[in-house]
Design goal:
The protein has a 6-stranded parallel sheet, sandwiched between helices. A 4-stranded parallel sheet has the order 6-5-7-8, sandwiched between helices. The chain is built from 13 helices and 10 strands. By secondary structure, it is of the alpha/beta class.
Length: 278
């Protein structure tokens, strides 16, 4: 059994790319007192089109790294990893690695809240191909809100648009409109749309432009943050394992300079970044 540091440590937030920075931002807005480590596996991003086995393997490596760095709690700030790897890690790995450590995802918190946001139980999902094909949202929502009908559409070009800083371009208009039209064609009664990829909030101005008035858009950051706050209230043993210095470290498997440049799209502030091998 690997030996991880036992003393209290930071909260780990993991994503394949930069999108998890929107989750980190939401969490730090609500819970600024804790220390955080953000780990982006940018060298191997995106995960959206990769197989279940590969996503699981990569995600497990990242979780192990964050545990080694002293994290007792890791948030998968990535829908694809939450959809394809979370359950295996929780069931198969944690009991052997360290039963006291926890890994949480972003899909369940969104599923928990969605029934309070939709008025007519018709919910749309815009996400990567991996997340849509996994049916993770449908399954989680069905458990909690069986009356809700979920319709998902994959948006393969949205992540590159954001990462190449093209979110304001005419190209973004074309691809955003195309997918929203496709979604509304499948179910014209949709009144609430989940942005099931952590990159997509960056496209919010374009999304708002092409959805009809009255349709509610649900970015995940604030809901994941609220869910985490609630989790720590209920699990005081975990809360005691978290250090409270208000700091944040950024780690990437990519070139740190490149990460810094791209991260500004998401963070609007300059950050120091370290390279890490998984």
């Amino acid at each position: 059994m690997p030996m991880f540091p036992e003393k209290p440590g930071p909260i780990g937030v993991f994503d394949s790319g930069y999108g998890g920075l929107t989750i980190l931002h939401g969490i730090r807005q609500l819970l600024p007192q804790y220390d955080y480590i953000y780990l982006g596996d940018n060298a191997r991003a995106p995960y959206g089109t990769r197989s279940f086995d590969v996503v699981y393997q990569f995600t497990r490596q990242a979780v192990m790294k964050l545990f080694e760095l002293g994290c007792h709690l890791v948030i998968l700030g990535c829908n694809t990893a939450s959809a394809k790897a979370l359950r295996s890690i929780q069931r198969n790995d944690l009991p052997n690695l360290d039963p006291s450590r926890r890994v949480l995802g972003v899909i369940r918190p969104t599923a928990e809240i969605i029934g309070t946001l939709t008025k007519n139980n018709h919910v749309g999902l815009l996400a990567t191909e991996g997340t849509v094909k996994s049916h993770s949202y449908d399954l989680e929502i069905k458990k909690l809100w069986p009356e809700i009908k979920v319709t998902g559409v994959a948006c393969p070009f949205w992540v590159p648009l954001v990462e190449y800083n093209e979110a304001d371009s005419p190209g973004a208009d074309y691809f955003v409109k195309k997918r929203i039209d496709e979604l509304m064609l499948h179910d014209p009664d949709i009144d609430t749309i989940i942005l099931g990829c952590t990159h997509y909030p960056i496209l919010m101005p374009k999304i708002m432009k092409y959805v009809r008035p009255g349709v509610r858009i649900v970015p995940q950051g604030e809901y994941v943050a609220g869910s985490l706050q609630d989790y720590l209230r209920r699990h005081t043993d975990m809360e005691h394992q978290l250090t409270q210095g208000g700091s944040c470290r950024y780690l990437t498997t990519e070139n740190p300079e490149r990460f810094k440049e791209s991260a500004q799209i998401f963070l609007h502030e300059k950050v120091e970044v370290e390279h890490v091998e998984l």
